[in-house]
Amino acid sequence: MLLATLSFSGMHATIKHVSTDLHPFEIAFFRNFFGLVALFPFFIRHGLTPLKTNRIGLHVGRVALNIGSMLAFFYAISITPLAEVIALSFAAPIFATLLAIFIFREKVALTRWMAILFGFAGTVVILRPGYEALSLGPILALMAAMTWGSAVIIIKTLSKTDSSVTITAYMVLFMTPLSLIPALLVWEWPTWEQLAWLALVGSFGTAGHLTMNVAIKLAPTNVVMPIDFVRLIWVAIIGYFIFAEIPDIFVWIGGAMIFLSGLWIAHAENQNRKNETDSRF
């Protein structure tokens, strides 16, 4: 998971850099295209075995959510300080829990409701509506968190039967042609130097998803997720030294509140799974 935070932080910073010249939608396409290229060694070694699955419908549903999340997230990064976008992205587990409540009729204890409210209070701290005008970037970041939270539910379901390589392979395999459609609307041929940066975006992204999927598969969520907060530290450092961005105290406080909320939700989910397992014996 630590490798995942490094990979994703590198991807965020590279997107920010390239977006000064290219539209975020085009960057999203190349992220998927070069992400697919980065998976070629797995196909060369294992053939089409990584594509074997009995849950193609779930993969398609995950991709549909992922493409919306990616486009909104990339655009948010291009117009908003990195640390603020990442802090708001921690809201994904909160949205995932709300979806589990209303769609799957999952029963939730009072403490988890309190965690959800605490997390949303964190978003208010960051956005400070009434004190600062709500801009497009933070709104897109929250929309990305919402759709990514939905995708996480599907990833958890898929990880019970499919490998991390299979999950990642279907993501880039389907998202590459889908992301080309909005990219064509704003298309501008990149230079060779820009292509190199775009290849880095794709490589970072694929490495991040592979290592995160493996982490989720190998360890309980409440063990894995605390490490994700390191991502905010990485991007704050990168933002300061490369983009001259200084996150204010509200971003740190709100980000910590949102993250702690997600951490408590992950802990509660893990306890529920343990209780369900114990009740079977």
Q: How would you summarize the topology of this molecule?
A:
Elements: H1 2-18, H2 24-38, H3 40-46, H4 56-79, H5 82-89, H6 92-103, H7 110-127, H8 136-158, H9 164-185, H10 192-218, H11 221-224, H12 230-243, H13 249-279
In a nutshell, what does this entry contain?
This protein has 281 residues and is mainly alpha-helical.
Oligomer: single chain
Task: Tell me the β content.
Answer: under 5%
Number of strands: 0
Main sheet summary: none
Structural domain count: 1
Q: pLDDT below 50 for ≥5 consecutive residues: which ranges? A: none
Shape: globular
- Specify Rg, calculated over alpha carbons: 19 Å
Helix content: over 70%
Distance between the termini: 32 Å
Q: Helical segment tally?
A: 13
Order of helices and strands: HHHHHHHHHHHHH
Q: Which secondary-structure class do the elements indicate?
A: mainly alpha
**Averaging pLDDT over every residue, what do you get?**
85
Characterise the protein shown here.
There is one protein chain. This protein has 281 residues and is mostly helical. The chain has one domain (2-106, 133-245). The chain is built from 13 helices and no strands.
